[in-house]
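Lab channel / #folding
Pinned by the channel admin:
"Please post every new chain as: sequence first, then the structure tokens as a reply. Keep commentary short and put observations after the output so the thread stays searchable."

First post following the new format, from NK:
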Amino acid sequence: MGGSGVRNLERRYRTLLRVLPRWYRRDREEEMVGIFLTERDDDLDLEHSWPGWGETWAVLGLAVRTHLAAGAALTSVPAKVVWRGEVVRALGMLGLLLGLYYATSAVVQVFTLFGGPEAVPWWRVLELAPFVAFPALLSGRRTLAKVAAGAPALLSVVALGQPGPAVLMWTVFQLPSLVTFACLCLGFHREAPVPPAGRLLWWGGGAVTLGVVGGVAAGTGLLLLGLVTAGARVFAFVRGDAVFGRALSLFALLQLVPVVLLAVAWDEVVMSRAVLAVLLVLAVVLPVRRRSKAAPQVG
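Reply from TO:
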């Protein structure tokens, strides 16, 4: 026992609770520690035991829900926490739209480049999983959406174990997909709202249409995505949608990584990629909302 009279088990519980945001711990920490220590009055237990796995996972899940707050169960949530959660969820939705684009492009290329599905390895069927994930999330089936969205991400992770620089470069190109998949899993927790299906169906249709264009015009995918991202960034700014604008800024930053990698790997500057890089940088650094005009002073 320490000089302060705090037993080791209590100290370990308080250490675990530090994963929760400060605003939440301020009101709930003492209550939670008291619940954890209920009926644990054995001296040996209080000195040498640790929080159980079930308690640890429960606290970690609560940490996700409170850091990315959403839902009526949480009260007195700081505005910046709510805003952060909305941005992460918007970035996760952008990842699903990106998955629809890649899946559609893959289907088109199967017929335009490979001559039919019989010439394609069986595992590439996993690339079609976004067609399941997108409607699943819009209908509120979060677990199914995350599992389906994780199938293409699994291909990227498996590719990391393969030798050769080409595979590493391909994995870097998947960075936007991997990061947005993580945002999807973290942002759409059980208390998060279901995305509005009516509006997002239009965006999904746009992603599929864009995928058809990208599949036919093979090799233009990076440029096409960058141009659409920059255009959507302008659209969000005009509408005054700061959440969507910030998510697009982060999305543009993720796309900059493969653009820079291409410039470094090939040691040459291509005009189209230079223009794309400038557009993406502008999408990252420009403000996400208009400055409010100062109210006129009355003399």
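NK: The chain is about 70% helix and 0% strand.
TO: also worth noting, Residues 8-67 form one domain.
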